[in-house]
Amino acid sequence: MDEPSSIAYLILMSTFAYLVFWYTRTRGLQQTLPLPPGPKKLPFLGNNLDMPSSFQWNTFSRWAEQFNSDILHLRIAGGDYIILNSHKAVTDLLDKRSGIYSGSWDCDILVLPYGEDLKAHRKLFQQQFHPNDTALHQPHEKKATVVFLNNLLDTPDDWLAHMKHMAGALIFQIAYGIHIKHKDDPNIVAAEKMMAVLSAAGIPGAFLVDVFPILKYVPYWFPGASFKRKAREWNGIQSATVTPPFMEVKQAMANGNAEDCFSLRCLRNVKNPDPRPDRLSSEEEIIKETAGTMYEGGADTGITALRTFLLAMIRFPHVQRQAQEELDRVVGKDRLPDHEDLDKDTLPYLRAVIYECLRWQPILPLAFPHLVDVDDTYKGYHIPKGSTVISNLWAIFHDEKIYGPIDVHTFEPKRWLLKTSDVERGEKWKINTNMLDPTTLTFGFGRRVCPGKHMGLSSLLINAASLLHSFDITPPLDEFGEPVMPKIEYISGMLYHPVAFECCIKPRSEGHVALVKQALLELGVGP
Ligand code: HEM
């Protein structure tokens, strides 16, 4: 061997020896490290019997206290589960180590896309649904809200149906450029059927499999495995829902009369389209699936948030009045609120109300499970590769160290506000930016953070502002004219929404009615 090649050989061998040493050392170290604490595991059964079937976040919080640890380990159906109960643990792992904590389950019944195509889906979102490009969603949000307000004027008791229609119509407009006018539009009917299958309220098993995806491997005949039959049903319905509207866009594009929308923007960039109008190339299939996830990810989450908002407005009338005073001062009575008004410096009280809704009753109390791709260590504990990592957002949102000293179980928007001396503008408050912004938790973490986050928040804000600007929201009256206050009761599920309740939604004045009618005319979106 000549000299240079023997040096190269030596370097190669020492690098190899070092890598072997490092690997065995870290593997050895990891395997000697304990798992995070948690309830005692039974042979074969692990923690299966410890798991409550509802409101799991309360049990996780109790265990965190009992084991004095913000990170817990459970073994359920043979799978490893890591439960994170503090903001620090969630940020350290899911945000800072997002590169290895962003895996996903290939789970049949999950609301959102999982599997190999995930990266392609996210790329399309990044390219064609960018947070700075508000033109793709805000004008449609405004229109959908005005139609919603008008429907409330006509049949206020049907508020939930109107809300669902508004959320569905908005997504169809943005995803496919399709104008949904009637509540029995076949697209909406199909989409609602799809979401009904997913509704955790009706299918506790489905909720459990979302949170504990390993359960999907239990056999069909297993007692309680009815969610598996639902999953089959779901696959068929999902395809029947997302294919027709996408084919409409492809056809309209070929005819040269497609409206600007997410699908069209993506289709324009396709390198290898299938020339047949009723077929899709693999590239087009990915766009179809991605557009489909907009409804799955964006419709029910937004409705859940608005339902909590309405409930809070009924239960806390003084909060409603303060928000209306702010809207009257900033927006006035001659126009409806616009997106430009929704900045946290412009309507700080409204912003505080929305933040408080997101915190008080989190839309997804356990966020979405992530998978860890490799063995890891945290706080001296071993985190096994393949563990499902669950963030207990409920615990974080009710952590007194973060959201105290005002009682964290009380609905109190003032916890978000600081007094200001800007008396000239009539401002009393500004948002306390030192308080942990709930939108950094509500929409998930790291590489998997919700790609519709910007739209989710802006649509929630414009709806809340417009509702309070035009209407008074009060409890229903009984036969003696006495108010019947709805209870603060929630249904345990992946999406956390209140038990059905009634409310009175009345226009604040004739002037407010006229404003809605006028806006409807101006936007050219007659009922
Ligand atoms: C208030 C409204 C919304 C909430 C609370 C919400 C929340 C979430 C959460 C928690 C996740 C999982 C993030 C993670 O794994 O860490 C997610 C993912 C997702 N969201 Fe949203 N979202 C909302 C609105 C929307 C909207 C309007 C759209 C689309 C137009 C959307 C589309 C999606 C999609 C496609 C995913 C899957 C992303 C992935 O798995 O990579 N969401 N959302």
From TrEMBL:
Domain of life assignment: Eukaryota
Gene3D superfamilies listed in its UniProt record: Cytochrome P450
PROSITE patterns: CYTOCHROME_P450
Keywords assigned by UniProt, alphabetized: Heme, Iron, Membrane, Metal-binding, Monooxygenase, Oxidoreductase, Transmembrane, Transmembrane helix
Sites where the protein binds heme: 450
Family of this protein: Belongs to the cytochrome P450 family.
Name this polypeptide is given: Cytochrome P450
